[in-house]
Amino acid sequence: MAKITISLDDDLVKRADNYADENYMSRSGLISIALTQYLNSADVTRAIKDLAFAMRKIADNGVVDEDTQRQLEDFERLSKMLVLAK
After folding, report:
1. Smallest Cα–Cα separation from 50: which of 80, 74, 66?
2. Domain residue spans in the chain?
């Protein structure tokens, strides 16, 4: 576990504290959950873009090269992780 120091707007801290209190969690717990969700969302967005690119390459070329195969496998792994996380 790492301890960090960050600067946040006072109003944002108040909102976060209120939300954390109302949901029986700590400020650190809330920030950890929020950051995890943000990073997961960024991963999904990147994977969808990669999948779209891979599908376009397949449509244009009619073949699946090594790079495209890797992109498809990466998307499949992420999809399985998301399904299992529910």
Report:
1. 74
2. 39-86
